Please model this.
Amino acid sequence: MSDKRDMSNPGPQATASDQPTMEEPSAEVERPVGATRVPGAPRDSYTKMPTGPVGVEPVVASGPADTAGMPAVQWAPNDDTGAEDNTRLAPWALLAAIVALCASCFVGWGIPLAIVAVVAAIMSLRRPVENREVALWALILGIAATIYSLGWLIWAGMQFENLG
Model:
């Protein structure tokens, strides 16, 4: 039988000699330079200096510039601002929504123009150069025109069933 002891509660029978000990390595064992340290071993010293300001030294080019026939300024920023997009979509969307709303008061066939107005209003709301108030009104009126046109088409469909 083996001698089993409960180490969580050593009780009075445990002595200092029962504690595990760690021997130092012999002289033949060397720790290689640059080897990682054993986990839990104390550090000898810091290996990196604390972070601090880094000195910036000017770069001095010495010697003649070899341009090989190139002009002195080889690159310069473009001063041309490019073509500005001055096309506005929101007023056209509002105009289409107003026409679609007027048409939807009398017939239901204004729904394609109402859908075009809603799509154009959504597109103009997503563009940063557009007037958001005009685009929002175009969206509201376009949705109202779509609802009225659908109402007319549903009513016309029910009337068609009554005739046949």
Residues 156 and 162 are 10 Å apart (CA to CA). Helices lie at 90-104, 111-126, 132-163.
